[in-house]
Amino acid sequence: xxxxxxxDIKRLNRDWRRRTSGSVSVALVSLSNPxxxxxxxxxxxxxxxxxxxxxxxxxxxxxxxxRKTSLGTEKAVQTVQAATLAEVADQVHAQGGVMTAxxxxxxxxxxxxxxxxxxxxxxxxxxxHGLPPSGLSLCDNAVFVAQPGKVASLNVSVAASxxxxxxxxxxxxxxxx
Length: 177
Hints:
Elements: H1 6-18, E1 23-29, H2 34-46, E2 51-55, H3 64-70, E3 78-82, H4 85-94, E4 98-102, E5 109-110, E6 119-124, H5 133-136, E7 141-144, H6 156-176
Parallel strand pairs: 1-2, 1-6, 2-3, 4-6, 4-7, 5-7
Helix pairs in contact: 2-3, 2-6
């Protein structure tokens, strides 16, 4: 093994882009920490998300702390500012997409057991309180990340990263079979 050159990395990423299908977006409902928002932008751009929806009091991509963490990747993903999750749900459903809450909620299934459709919007709530019942009611289904350790919660940016990756992993697996 050897470290990859910049050219090697570009070729590798180009190959993975060719193998990538499905449409994924992320809706952030009233997040308060701009560093979390920046981290989610970076992961969304890396994994080819189409859109990041910023809802309620979620910090915008123009905030310095968001930009510091995202390292400019917020420019690679479409941003839509929305007043309510209902607006986003209407838009996603009109485009044939599904709203999936990433939340520790009654009725949620482990993320690795959920079969993601071709078009999904992953919905994440605030760091402290998650999605309110009114937000959960707008989602078509809910998934959670199994946490067998002694701590029963993940940072919202980590949960978003795992959900985005699981969506892509499932679609890559379908292409291989």
